[in-house]
Design a protein that fits this description.
Blueprint (H helix, E strand, L loop, with lengths): L1 H17 L3 H21 L3 H9 L1
Length: 55
Amino acid sequence: MFITFALITLLGALGMLLQKNVIVAGLCMVATFFGVAGLFVLLANPVAAALQLIV
C-alpha cells in the first residue's frame, strides 16, 4: 500500500510540474493530495488525512 500511495504522490507531483495546461495541472495536484492523504492513513492518522483533503 505504501508503494501505491507513494507512486500516486510522486506521479501527481511530476505531472503537476510538467503540465502546460492549468486545468490538468490542477487535477494532478488533487491526485497528489489524495496520495498524501493515503500516506497519512497508513501512518494511522486519519485526522491529518481528512484535513489534507478538506484544505
